[in-house]
Amino acid sequence: CVCVCVCVCVWFLVSEQDTRRLIKLRAANEVLFTGKRNAAKAAWKAILKELGLLGKVSTYQMSKKWDNLKRRYKDLKYPPVGMETAADGAASWPWFHLMNDAMEGRLGDSAPLLTPITHDDQPPDPAPRARPAHQPLPPDYDPYPEGPGGDGCERALAERLGGLEREWEMVERERLAVETERAGLERDRAGLEQDRGVVERDRAAVQADRQWLERERALMEQERAALDRERELLDNQRALILSSVGHSGHLNPLDCLHSKTIF
To answer: How many CB atoms are located within 10 Å of the residue 162 CB?
Structure first.
């Protein structure tokens, strides 16, 4: 069988001070990561030089560290549904607030704007450790996809990282748009709640007026019934008087006295 060298990641330790400077430098030099070919690699070289790590840490390793920082921040900032309690870890992760400022564009002036390193007179990236893997080569294997001495792997990696950066920026813009729309909806909801309160108060006032009118109507009905009873009583008395006059032809003094007493 033929041995093929497979690249593996080399873990490295970065001090807290370097991590803090890395976050600020990466945020302040966002404009260097344009997504163009080799732009990310040149920008990372400039950042590594500023950190004093050029030749000690590869651009790939540093970009992976930045990706890990962003992934951890995103998991704490936007936890999956059902995992909201995991967001409490943001208080214990020392880089959450600094990453939050970086992701929301508040660190633009926190570090100097660097010049990308595009020439080859700088120390090359340290070669990662390799281990042999015994596996057969594919039939169409080409050891020089970009020609002898080409940097096809680096170019492909840079293009992939650039694509991820653009995708992340698009997601951030969409998130900001959603947040803005949500804020507008909250304002509309607050306005509707105020209108609902006004309507409820008006409804209560109308109900109180209706109850007062019902009571007034009931009193009027009672007074009308009393007047009807008095009118009926007067009609009966008048009929009695007229009946007495019709039978006798003259008024009986007692009837007159009785009538005067009645009236």
So the answer is: 19
> How far is it, in rounded angstroms, from Cα 220 to Cα 216?
6
Checking if the pLDDT of 233 tops 90, the result is: yes
Comparing C-alpha atoms, which of 173, 162, 131 is closest to residue 63?
Answer: 162
236 touches 229 (CB < 8 A): no
- Residue 25 contacts residue 63 (beta carbons within 8 Å): no
Tell the residue number behind the tokens 């019709």, with chain if given: 246
Asked whether the CA dihedral 237, 243, 245, 247 is positive or negative, the reply is negative
Q: What is the pLDDT of residues 28-64, one digit of tens each?
A: 999 999 999 999 999 999 999 999 999 999 999 999 9
Residue boundaries of the structural domains of the chain? 3-141, 221-262
Among candidate residues 17, 45, 20, 19, the one with its CA nearest the CA of residue 32: 45
Of 126, 130, 157, 159, the closest CA to residue 64 belongs to 157
Q: In b/e form, how buried is each residue of 12-40, taking b as 16+ CB within 10 angstroms?
A: eebeeeebebbbbbbbbbbebbebeebbb
Residue 38, C-beta contacts closer than 8 angstroms, at least 6 positions apart: 118, 154, 155, 158
Q: What is the pLDDT of residues 171-193, one digit of tens each?
A: 888 888 888 889 888 998 998 89
Q: Does residue 134 carry a pLDDT above 50?
A: no
Please state the length of the chain: 263
Q: What is the distance between the alpha carbons of residues 75 and 3, in angstroms, rounded to a whole number?
A: 39
Strands 130-134 and 3-7: antiparallel
